[in-house]
Amino acid sequence: MAFITLARNVRVDTESSTHSAHIALFILRELYLLGYWQEMEKSTDTGWTSASNVLAEPSDLAVAASTPLEITSASTPFTLAMEGQYISLFASDSSNRGLYRIKSVLSTSRIVVEEMCRPDPWVDESGISAKIHNASKSDYLATGAWFVMRAPSATGRPMEVYVEATAADNVSMYGYPLGDWFDPPGTPSTPGSRTVTTGSGGLVAASGGYSYFNAYITDPAGEGLLHHTQIGTPSMWARFVAGELEDVALGDDYPGFVNTSGSNYNYELVDSDYCAAINMLDDTNVGTDFWPTWMANAGLSGFGSDSSPHRNLLTTRMKGKAPFWKPNVAAPNASNGGYIRGTLPYYTCNHYQPLHFPIDPGFFHIRNGIVIPRSSTLDKTLRGPR
Amino acid sequence: MRHWIRDAVVDQPAAEGSYGGAFFAAMWTVYHFLRTCGWKWIWEDDSYYYNLNGSPGGVSNSAHCPDSSMEAVGTANWTPDAGIVVAKDSTQRHMLTQSLKITNSLNGSSGSVDSDNFINMLDTYSFACVLQYRNPTSNTYTATINGVSVDLIPTAGAWERSPVITFISAGTTDKLEIGCPDVNGAVEDIWIDSIIVYRGWYERFVQDEDLSASPDGQLLNGDEFHSDSHSFVSGDIGRLLCVYDPTNEGNSGVWKITGLNGNDAVLDLRDGGSWTMTPATGLRWRLIDSELNAPYYNGGGSILAGFGLESPHSTKWRFFAKPNWVGGPSNLIMLWMSPTDADFDVETGYLSESFPVTYDVHEGKYSTNNFAGFRIAGDSGYRGGSQQRLFVVTDDEGTYLQLCFRPPGSDTILAYGIFGVSGADANVDEDESFISLCVVGSRDGYSDLQFGTSTDSFGYQGAMATKREFMVDARLMMFGMGHNNEFSEKSYGSNGQANPFSGKEWTIVPVIMRDLDNSESQFAQKELTTFGCRHCRVNFPVWSLVDTDLLHINNGWCMPWPDGATPL
Questions:
Q1: Could you give the CA distance from residue B130 to residue B118 in angstroms, rounded to a whole number?
Q2: Reported pTM
Q3: Were both Cys, which of A7, A339, B393, B530 would link to A99 (CB 3.0–4.6 Å)?
Q4: CB–CB of B483 and A341 under 8 A?
């Protein structure tokens, strides 16, 4: 599976609990758009497009490998007010495409992005469209703002997600694995008839006032998984994921899911008490909480507590690598459950690996066993509170 | 390629009478199957010491030849003729620390070195003796017991195993004589080590292929076996035929002969469908008769006999099995292993702890003989009753061994264990992938293959190799669910079902976790891919096919199965 990094270490300030969800929702929409998802609909809110939020939308930007951090434009769209703000670079080359924080404006035709946001050297490209914005910090989105995106899968009926700022500090997600937000296509369906997963909400407030956004997407020719993490201070570890399970059975055509870190920054992917559900539709298209599985002690004692073997997994150290793997996802032990449905399209490892640290040339451990891919070995180490 | 014993029905020894004993006859059958598969005999033990003397106080030493391992200080147990000098020598040894060096300077006549008289022998019974020797001379020496002699031919300096000396015990006067030739005043040395004297319960069979010629077994007509060197007769009906076919999966096995077609044997394929053998020639085979030749107890026999085998795998891992011999005959077979060709004491079968061995893990030592070691145990009634159904899996290379003993009439009171090299992966090299996974504890009469909170649950306390000289504690993992750490959730409990989208059953590769430094905080996981075992849902019907090549045994545990065969 190929991964494309959409955002790496993009720092966003002034995130109090008053507006953190509004900012996060704005950035999440940008990430979905950068991730090739198709916007189906969004709430009526001036914050999406107001001039105080969206500072410019040039379409003639250029990047060059010889000037690794620079973005240039012949149409002179850049102003000093853009320093410290953000640019969604809708480049054709996936190595260039992504969300960056603008470090400095060198002139009206040249800007420099922060180095820690730049995972790879630029690939020469011109004619790039972009959106320069301030993450809606001038004209905050309202609580209750939302958008719906459709995954970029080239085949079948892609899943859709509904993302809403349900509170000033909380963003919730719902999945529409059947892709029936418009049903039939092109016609708004009655909300009650849409086949929606159970909800999955997550706190996004960073009490320290800032957080770092990171995101990647799987190859858009695939199911277009979008995995977004938000690392704040002092203990904020929000995660929002929308995608499809892998290794599903023949006939399981709609394995779309959403998964967030929940209401207590439960960043752990698999554990006995702390992980959040994998929200899916079951085989009768009823929203159901599925669960990632973890290796547990068969005897329940002697190897520490039931969950400790998994949490404490280390490599043998014989080969100097940390093991990581994709967990199975199980239907609950209920009358319509009790089976393995597939595997998560992302990874888990020992919970006590170093924070924000590469555990393999291709993978980063973020925290508590969550592993995400790197763009390359030149990738910048993730930032966040230590 | 895998090789199975697929539901062989093993009968107890006829001499047992009402004492049962099919459990041990089943292990005896496993021995013969593995021998047919190319496993090497390395040790045998008849436990006569125990049987003759009552309780041995927990010590297993049934060796009959004093100082047979050559580990005793000095040479008091050895008496040389004039012109011959004996000494212990630590520079040349077959196993452990030293051997017996025989310096021959005879001039004008031949002579010998005699052992002390054997101990704990039974008058008029047939015994066997095998020893290791190193003869770098150009002369042939001999080994003789009660007039039965074998040659110890020159070995060009290598250690060699002697031919088997089969002799009738005379009781208290049996002894080993190393015959030395007249060297006309020259001086030359040979070395002796690892003398095993045993009743010979295991290497007993009715007939096998002529080992000096190419294997001559043939499978034909779907369920018939032919040998040019043996004409099957009516007396063979009811006997078991061990077959090894290196080419056609599913042909190997232990098959009961149920009839004759001319001089060929007709085999019971134990299949509920339409399984037929693939025609094949050049097969290794061995005809055995558990009722006639398996060890028996019957109040005083030698049902406690044990054996040691070396796998044909490149690691030469070693497998020892012996019925528990403390507290009287029971239904426990103690097992101990080494991931390598570890030295062992021929007097006891105990592996040297200078090597990684399963009973010497980092966490502590397991006994091989007091209900606290690795073992398999089945139905507690009279040592397995009169019959056992036997399910075994191994492969061409002897990579692993899976054992399952199933008493007739019971679907769940099973003896079960898996052992061997689990294979290299991204994190574990092959030399540290060896595992032993079976029950540790004393409880019999229950299924070994149950998962729970007691130490005698399957997989609760295994052993896994490391790159160091000891093994470490390891344990089978189950898969918990994210929101609930209750044991009942593992393998998805009472509501387990097939995947509803495909209608097919789902299975999971088992994982073993090892505790590298006994800290309970640095685990490493290993998928048990080579064994072919899988977890399935716990409520799947027992002894049923989860897939065409996977048989659910009990409690969500599956063993590989020959594709196309139908279990009875």
A1: 14
A2: 0.87
A3: A7
A4: no
